[in-house]
């Protein structure tokens, strides 16, 4: 039996371990190609002085436009997720959209939605995109304070695979 055959998904077992408990990439070659989409969210909490300064500047720092730069970084990260997460498959990304919302309270919410037509999903790509956007915002604002907190990176929804998922409380 090949490693790929031993790695086929079994309920209650981790998919990235073979029968000998060695790490392995999941074989998705026999899976059906479907349209798959995932949305992930990351939140950043800014101290009040940073939130005020960022809003007053039109979300710009000396490094440039914060939210535009975070969007570009997120798209780059989505396309390179397979280079960062060892067992992710390289995927043709058909769509990647970022929504960045800054509340007066200093909370920034980032939502990253990714879509492909493939044999495996894009949850990791959406999570990576949201995370890298959050880290980019941190990087661009850290001169104002290091009390910025990146918090609650999570999957909100996924569809198109064997199991759809929607988080109950957003």
Shape: elongated
**Quick one: biggest sheet?**
5 strands, antiparallel
Find the CATH superfamily: Molybdopterin cofactor biosynthesis C (MoaC) domain
Side-by-side strand order of the widest sheet: 4-5-1-6-7
The unreliable regions are 1-10
Helix segment tally: 5
Helix proportion range: 25-40%
Q: Mean pLDDT, rounded to whole units?
A: 89
Q: How does the SSE layout of this entry go?
A:
Blueprint: H1 3-6, E1 34-45, H2 48-56, E2 60-61, E3 64-65, H3 66-79, H4 81-84, E4 95-102, E5 107-118, H5 123-141, E6 149-159, E7 165-166
Antiparallel strand pairs: 1-5, 1-6, 2-3, 4-5, 6-7
Helix pairs in contact: 3-5
Could you walk me through the main structural features you see in this protein, from its secondary elements to its overall organization?
The chain is α+β, with helices and mostly antiparallel strands. It has one domain (35-160): Molybdopterin cofactor biosynthesis C (MoaC) domain (Alpha-Beta Plaits, 2-Layer Sandwich), CATH 3.30.70.640. It is 29% helix and 29% strand. It is built from five helices and seven strands; from the N terminus they run αβαββααββαββ. It has helices at 3-6, 48-56, 66-79, 81-84, 123-141, and strands at residues 34-45, 60-61, 64-65, 95-102, 107-118, 149-159, 165-166. A five-stranded antiparallel beta sheet has the order 4-5-1-6-7. The longest helix is centred in the last third of the chain and has 19 residues, at 123-141. Residues 1-10 have low confidence and may be disordered.
